Amino acid sequence: MEQKEIVKKFLNYCLTEKALSINTVKSYENDLKGFLNWLDEQNILILNCKKDDIVHYLLGLKEKGYTSSSIARNLSSLKQFFRFLIFEGSINHDPTEGLKSPKLWLRLPKALELDEVKKLLSVMLQSKYYLRDITMLELMYASGLRVSELVNLKLSDINFEAGFIRVKGKGDKERVVPIAHRSIEKIKKYLVELRPKLLKKKTSDYVFLNNRGEAMTRQRFWQNLKTMGSVAGVNVTPHMIRHSFATHLLEGGADLRSLQKMLGHSDISTTQIYTKVSMDRLRKEYLKHHPRAR
Question: What is the pLDDT of residue 71?
Answer without folding.
Answer: 86
